[in-house]
Amino acid sequence: MVKAIGVIIMSSIIAFSPLPLAFASECQAPQPRIMIDRVVLNSPVKPIVINKQASLPVRYISECLGGIVYWNPDEKTASVSYQGVETQVKGAIINDAMMASLDFFSDVFGAEGKFFPKENLVVISTRDSLPSEKEALELIPSYSGYTQEDLLWLAKIVEAEAQGEPYASKLGVASVIINRKESNLYPDTIKDVIFDKRFGVQFTPTANGAVYNSPSAQSWMAAIEALEGTNNAPSTLFFLNPRYATSNWVQKNRRYAFTIGGHNYYY
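RESULT FIELD:
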């Protein structure tokens, strides 16, 4: 028995200037992730997204779910065998990988699936019910080299400083906090960097209370990625939004680096 399943594919790039295009395209959204049965996978082929729908690598996901993938090199087609049923995949080959829609895996393996576009996260469940957005976010952190407290405070300052900004701006704010933590000029914990007052209040949200608000999903993801090593504002130690800045000390005393969203960054 062979079934035919359609597929949706794409790639999207949002660039910001003056960072190099190739670098900017890596930072415009959370890194794509796949979670199966509440475990985050390290897939060598990342999901591809268009119109808030995700396509996944057929071989990797199928084998994770217990299927067998057959590839026809002459016709460049693939089929998946699972529990005695063989399903033909109709899709597209992207970067040498056959990609299929999330619905394909739901139909073939009887699994529940959902895509969270804000987190760029695909969740598949074969046993229990699908985790909620909040539960999925809590399952993502590895806490390798950082603590739950680090993540919480970094997400809070990102939300306070970059609420309403694009994802790249949120990641930029998180990157500056990480840069300061790694500099010998500043405290060596995330929380202490945020609340540092040795030379006056460093971040306005710590004074006006905005830092205590709950982080959005994208602020949470930006904090996770920054703590895991993604940095789109390398070597910078300052940022400001010129529309709201009440002091010009940074512009006069620090070297301008670049602009991401509404924030200017300085070395």
